[in-house]
């Protein structure tokens, strides 16, 4: 054992390293989303926004985005460098108020995974559905039936999603495919080496800045 990170007051459900391993996200009970500096093994910040236990997390391939899944029926897409929520993927409509989001319902989100194209996110929920999302759209681009889903992961090339269930099975789907634009590929290349605050200091037009910051 090398180190122990202390800060959670209850269960830690999931952890994920950023692509460059400089940052770790850990999520758990009591709405916890913690970001850790892995050079110093210290906490960077707590991300506030969820209303129930947070059970899964995953970074985008360029490290510019962080997805978290919660029993509050939501998946949030964060900027891990600023702590801002950039996108919300709801699994219950209309979205529950905070007092009801903290209770039992049949839309608990169990897992979330980023595709390696940096454009798509998959989520599993207790409503017996697997959903495929685009990071620039607030509705699923495709859905498929899945009972008792627990976890999911994309293949390295992003063409297949694997999902594990309570009944001891692993299911596979061919995922929605889209050729990334040249602009998106350039954005990912830049964001792999530049955090948000450095991007914001670039002498570039505001529209380009918003695009590089995933705010459009």
Major sheet: 4 strands, antiparallel
Please give the CATH architecture: 7 Propeller
What is the CATH topology?
A: Methylamine Dehydrogenase, Chain H
Distance between the termini: 42 Å
The total count of strands amounts to: 15
Task: Tell me the strand percentage band.
Answer: 35-45%
Helix content: 10-25%
| Global Rg | 17 Å
Write down the CATH class: Mainly Beta
Q: What's the rounded overall pLDDT mean?
A: 93
Concise overview:
By secondary structure, the chain is mainly β. Helix content is 12%, strand content 40%.
Structural account:
This is WD repeat and SOCS box-containing protein 1. Pathway: Protein modification; protein ubiquitination. Keywords: Repeat, Ubl conjugation pathway, WD repeat. InterPro entries: SOCS_box, SOCS_box-like_dom_sf, WD40/YVTN_repeat-like_dom_sf, WD40_repeat_dom_sf, WD40_rpt, WSB_SOCS-box_domain. By secondary structure, this protein is mainly β. The chain has a single domain, classed as YVTN repeat-like/Quinoprotein amine dehydrogenase (Methylamine Dehydrogenase, Chain H), CATH 2.130.10.10. The chain has 4 helices and 15 strands. The strands form 4 sheets. It has a 4-stranded antiparallel sheet with strand order 1-2-3-4, with no helix packed on it. The chain has a 4-stranded antiparallel sheet with strand order 5-6-7-8, with no helix packed on it. Strands 9-10-11-12 form a 4-stranded antiparallel sheet, with no helix packed on it. It is globular, with a radius of gyration of 17 Å.
